[in-house]
Amino acid sequence: MVKSILKTITLSEFLRLPETKPANEYIDGKIIAKPMPQGKHSTIQDELVPTINTVVKPKRVARAFPELRCTFGGRSTVPDISVFAWNRIPRDENGEVANAFLIAPDWTIEILSPDQSQTKVIKNILHCLKHGTQIGWLIDPLEQTVFIFCPKQETEVFDESDTLLPVPDFASELQLTVGDLFAWLLE
Fold first, then answer.
1. How far apart are CA 21 and CA 96, in angstroms?
2. What is the pLDDT of residues 59-82, one digit of tens each?
3. pLDDT tens across 39-49, in order?
4. Cα–Cα dist 161/40, whole Å
5. Residues in contact with 65: Cβ distance below 8 Å, sequence separation at least 6, in sequence order
6. What is the tens place of the pLDDT at every residue in 99-153?
7. pLDDT given at position 21
8. What is the Cα–Cα distance from 28 to 98, expressed in whole angstroms?
């Protein structure tokens, strides 16, 4: 169930509020609490971030971030995994990774929790695509299905164990099947 605080505030007011666990998101002038991740969600997230980073990070192609606040297009959301091409990772004056990410990720990944609204999550993915994200994944652990969203393309559904999951061009060396992804739940 999605809980929202009814009072409408501005994005700048929202960004001044202290962070919460689980994170709050700012959508359409309202604060919406993300549900607390559960076992399947946490397992997939915990395995997927290093799997992506093992492929893209050593060559400085991209980097995957778990639970990173991304603020752009009038919203401030926290995708389960945000992947940024290396040259798009915001940096501070010291060249270090910045604290504020005010751009859309290149690849957004959401892992559906049992009490989470699939509609809300899809809207967040579509918002990312509208603002420059190349690909969005919606992973449904209960159905063992991955929905793939790309700009101006029909949504694809992947639920066959041996099917290779599509990734952005910059991560083309990542070879992950539906079966590989959901096998993590057995470990």
1. 25
2. 999 999 999 999 999 999 999 999
3. 999 999 999 99
4. 17
5. 49, 81, 82, 83, 84
6. 999 999 999 999 999 888 899 999 999 999 999 999 999 999 999 999 999 999 9
7. 86
8. 25
Q: pLDDT of 8-43, one tens digit each?
A: 889 988 988 998 888 999 998 898 888 888 999 999
Question: What distance in Å separates the CA atoms of residue 103 and residue 166, rounded to the nearest whole number?
Answer: 23
Is the omega angle on the peptide bond into residue 22 within 30 degrees of 0, that is, cis?
yes
Q: Six-digit token pair at 116? A: 């989470």
Contact present, 32 and 2 (Cβ < 8 Å): yes
The three state secondary structure string of the chain is CCEEECCCCCHHHHHHCCCCCCCEEEECCEEEECCCCCHHHHHHHHHHHHHHHHHHCCCCCEEEEECCCEEECCEEECCCEEEEEHHHCCECCCCCECCCECCCCCEEEEECCCCCCHHHHHHHHHHHHHCCCCEEEEEECCCCEEEEECCCCCCEEECCCCCECCCCHHHCCCCCEHHHHHHHHHC
| Token duo for residue 3 | 């809980």
